UniProtKB/TrEMBL annotation, chains A, B:
It comes from Streptomyces botrytidirepellens. The keyword Cell inner membrane does not apply. PROSITE patterns: HTH_LACI_1 (PS00356), HTH_LACI_2 (PS50932). GO terms for molecular function: DNA-binding transcription factor activity; transcription cis-regulatory region binding. Residues 2-56 form the HTH lacI-type domain. Keywords: DNA-binding, Repressor, Transcription, Transcription regulation. The keyword Repressor applies. InterPro entries: HTH_LacI, LacI/GalR-like_sensor, Lambda_DNA-bd_dom_sf, Peripla_BP_I. This is LacI family transcriptional regulator. It comes from the Bacteria.
DNA sequence: CTGAAAGCGCTTACAG
DNA sequence: CTGAAAGCGCTTACAG
């Protein structure tokens, strides 16, 4: 691959001049610019971004550490992040933590070593020392979807969805359909979304005079298998719940697997609802009632906040809201025509 | 962030020595190694990968350009690629082409500019000049899933799935269930998988004495919308097909959308099958018959081949096979208990 | 076993 | 408007 000096030589100028035309520096005579451009074209020259980054101390790359690529929610998020970043001249490097803190750390480390300009993370856990370090060390950072608290993390903006109202709508919906024994498959307590969704569910239940007994809170990890496991436990209870709320779409998938494998039917035997909506929910048997996040807006806002930080502007946290999308998995809505 | 010279200073040695202990060079006295390591720990020093890459001419990063992140097949592929790469000490940078040749080129360019050590690509189209250039320019490359032919591309290994036998099995299955008018929602003719799946379908039909008339071949682009559009056209035909085979899972999603919106039922009104299996196919109404690719093996083999090329070993193409997973979307299999 | 020095491919004050 | 030179943070022959 040709280097800048090859271009300079061919164009009969210095490397400084080549660099100037490449960077659109105004002070270059038109004819020398043309000569340089011709040489660039002849050689098929492409600037080495590694060398440029070393010199300029910026990579024009953003790191994005997501909890699980196999989760359509994160995949959509990643897509909107990439779109927004590209629009602003940044590329994004994705790391998939697979809901594993060790893998998350691995990616944070790698990304920081590669000197990405900023880091977008949706933490899998309560925050490792390494994560805190990255934040303190000066790498601009923003949390998306999930976040962590800690020494030196107050400065880190959080871009997320508040599902509170939507969860309340869901509970109202379930209540109206006659369900009284409601259970939740929770995400890891180490994650904010894991805790918040349970809290929101619990307080909505209280509003309707309903309790959330311990045996109706199943501990999942946001992945399908845990949804299966927790659902099995629920269904084995002497008084199983009438409705199950899965805190993400993969655990809902696991729940369906388990329900189906027992020959039971949704919603006749158990109602089911999920946090996070996905296109397939329209076609499942029955279509699944879900809480939809504005994923695209989330990604755009996160990138906006991160670039603000990178470029030295103050960046604010952003909270968007989710909405309930009622379908048939909790029972036939009143006044509907089946 | 501290640089190597800060470590050297604190440890009272030269930067060369620090570099040696960081790279596990054997010729370092134990006590100086300890001093250096202590300084590294004190400062929280992390080597700058950008500088290292510039010096060593390798980034230990692989580029992966996939056609569509929102397609679960590619998402699974990306995951297995990342796993395999990580095991071998490489990280992977993903670029999402969104089935758009221009975006694909953008990513290839960016990745090559960043001097990734090798490129894994699943081309969206017939191959842009830029792509050919990347291959010729010396960037080690391997095609996954889809590939392109062209001047200078003979050397590029192809790691893919041959769906021929599975497609034949599918046609046999449809035939056994009494379907005779079979249609296909094809992928772009510019892609190998787009063409191959039609070819395989056509020759399987021929084997059963069936024709594949032009109006039963709908041109899609591997995304959901096109599945909807093509299905609408099929259903508007004076003699609509009895069965529709979608060449990927997103077009199958679009087909279901369209079928449902017309108040028709699968498989009673039309049978449906898809290339690529996904976990949700078990829970759709009805469960969808699909052709499953060994995605994990595909990713591992692709990484293996690419690293072979990078490290100067000869790399071979790999062809794996797909298998039919019959479910209920084509009709009740003989001898089954509903 | 260790250090001084060159060099990877760029950019950017500083002169002229 | 252009060039010579320094320097980004490393690694690695080459001496000693």
């Amino acid at each position: 691959m040709p280097a800048i000096k090859d271009v300079a030589q061919r164009a009969g100028v210095s490397v400084a001049t080549v660099s100037r035309v490449l960077n659109d520096h105004p002070a270059v005579r038109t004819d020398t610019r043309d000569k340089v451009l011709a040489a660039v074209a002849d050689l098929g020259y492409r600037p080495n971004a590694v060398a440029r980054s070393l010199r300029t101390h910026q990579t024009r790359a953003l790191g994005l550490v997501i909890s699980d690529v196999l989760n359509p929610f994160f995949t959509e998020l990643a897509r909107s992040v990439e779109d927004a970043a590209r629009d602003r001249g940044y590329s994004v490097v994705i790391g998939n933590a697979d809901e594993r803190p060790d893998l998350q750390d691995h990616h944070v480390r790698t990304l920081v070593d590669r000197r990405i300009d900023g880091l977008l993370v949706s933490p899998t856990d309560g925050g490792s020392p390494l994560m805190l370090d990255a934040a303190r060390t000066g790498t601009p950072m923003v949390f998306v979807d999930r976040w962590i608290e800690g020494e030196g993390l107050d400065e880190v903006p959080v871009v997320r969805t508040d599902g509170g109202a939507a969860v309340r709508d869901l509970v109202a919906h379930l209540h109206a359909l006659g369900h009284r024994r409601l259970a939740i498959i929770a995400g890891p307590a180490a994650t904010t979304t894991g805790r918040e969704r349970v809290d929101a569910f619990r307080s909505a239940l209280r509003e309707f005079g309903l309790a959330l007994p311990a045996e109706y809170i199943g501990q999942g990890d946001f992945q399908a298998d845990s949804g299966r496991r927790v659902t099995a436990r629920f269904l084995d209870l002497p008084r199983p719940p009438e409705a199950i709320f899965a805190a993400d779409n993969l655990m809902a998938l696991g729940a369906m697997d388990e329900i189906r494998s027992r020959g039971l039917r949704v919603p006749d035997d158990v109602a089911l609802a999920a946090f996070d909506d996905i296109p397939w929910f329209v076609h499942t048997d029955p279509p699944i009632t879900a809480i939809a996040q504005p994923t695209g807006d989330l990604g755009h806002a996160a990138v906006g906040a991160l670039i603000d930080r990178i470029e030295g502007r103050p960046a604010a946290s952003v909270t968007l809201s989710a909405r309930l999308v009622p379908r048939r998995s909790c029972g036939e809505p009143e006044g509907s025509t089946p």
